[in-house]
Amino acid sequence: MITNGNKYTVVDLFSGAGGLTIGFAQTGYQILLSTDIDNDCATVHRNNMPSIPFLQSDIKDITEEKIRQYVQTDVDVLIGGPPCQGFSTIGARASSKSEIRNRVDPRNSLFKEYIRILKCLRPKVFLMENVKGLLTKDKGAVLSEITEAFINTGYIFNYVILNAADYGVPQIRERVFFYGNRIGIEMNPPIATFGSGKKPYNVVKGAIEDLADSNTRALNHIPLKHGEINIRRYSLIPEGGRMPEDSLPPELYRKNFGNTFKRLDRNKPSLTMVPGHNAFPIHPWLNRSLTVREAARLQTFPDDFEFFGSRQKQCMQVGNAVPILLSKAWAQTIDTYLTSFYKTDEQSNFH
User: Fold this and answer.
1) At what angle do helices 311-320 and 39-48 cross, to 10 degrees?
2) I need a surface site. Which of 42, 68, 147, 319 has the fewest CB within 10 A?
3) What are phi and psi of 249, to 5 degrees?
4) Of all helices (H) and strands (E), which one includes residue 109?
5) H or E element at residue 177
6) Which residues are catalytic?
7) Closest-CA residue to 207 (of 303, 304, 351)
């Protein structure tokens, strides 16, 4: 169970299953409010983090008055990850920046809602996570709009692509993080501690080996009951490889084999856990897909953290989350900056 801290204050938007919330709470931050619209994510939050205030609401309905019912003090850090669907078509048929900016697109509004609440709360620091593809989406039009929006907030900001494996997560997972502050400090992202010239990467075997025994009991550890044809297909996938489509017998052929027909390598970090499927990639040495718990291990969730809803919703909760160890790396880095800020003479006159 995740308990609330009492040091620097945080508000988490689009919290999902709480990857960012957990990392910051475990580092000692006080989470003033966590929000999400999804009913199953609300259940996840209230069962695992009952001491952390949670507001289940459409972000567009969260007014300043409603926020202040939960947040009666200054906010040190605003965190969150607007769903990437908000950037899926922005600018696709627009011919100029102004047209892009003026388009009415509800999927794009989620990012704008993050900016709205940033302006409302005026935290000292912000952190926003998303898929790295938005940096090149529509030939850079999306990035231009995001950059302009942050410039208009008055925050000093930057962005960086980080690989979760570089921070101890047993998974290759690249995401973009926008980060900034209004307290006049030059921020840098967390320093990588794993990889070439550093600690060796954590790998799949160390994360999930103890769950391979069919008698092992763990939360959300229920293997899918695969059909005979799929089991035969899985048996042909080499460790660390994918379905050998060109050499399949006719009875096993199908038109498309996606990520769920790739087998992990036990001695390497895993492939990226992608949400939206009832099945994750194939276990390194068993002819079945990963369970929700195994995927959660690869996302560095605690074993006592339980996911709720249908299997598909549980997969989405796990796959959408910021890995806990990467979240903690950010929390620790921001903690260092805030500690330095609060020790300065200038902070007594800061507003």
Assistant:
1) 70
2) 68
3) -65, 150
4) helix 109-121
5) strand 174-181
6) 84
7) 303
Q: Characterize the bridge pairing of strands 54-56 and 77-80.
A: unpaired
Of 92, 70, 97, whose CA–CA distance to 9 is shortest?
A: 70
Where do we find the tokens 């983090």?
49
pLDDT digits (tens, 9 = 90+) for 23-41: 999 999 999 999 999 999 9
157 φ/ψ angles, rounded to the nearest 5 degrees? -145, 165
Helix then strand count (H, E) for the chain reads: 11, 7
Structural domains of the chain, ranges and CATH numbers in brackets = 9-191+323-340 (3.40.50.150), 204-319 (3.90.120.10)
Closest by CA to 67, choosing from 111, 120, 105, 21, is 120
> Which token pair is 64?
């300043």
Strand partners, 35: 55
Dihedral of the alpha carbons of 296, 297, 302, 307, in degrees to the nearest 10: 20
Residue 23, φ and ψ in degrees, nearest 5 = -60, -40
Contacting residues for 171 by C-beta, under 8 A, at least 6 apart: 164, 165, 269, 270, 271, 272, 273, 298, 299, 323
Q: Give 104-150 pLDDT, tens digit per residue.
A: 445 556 889 999 999 999 999 999 999 998 898 888 888 999 999 99
Which residues have a Cβ under 8 Å from the Cβ of 7 and sit 6 or more positions away? 28, 29, 30, 335
Which amino acid makes up residue 326? L
Structure tokens at 158: 């930057």
Closest-CA residue to 16 (of 299, 258, 332): 299
What confidence tens digit (pLDDT) does each residue in 304-322 have? 999 999 999 999 999 999 9
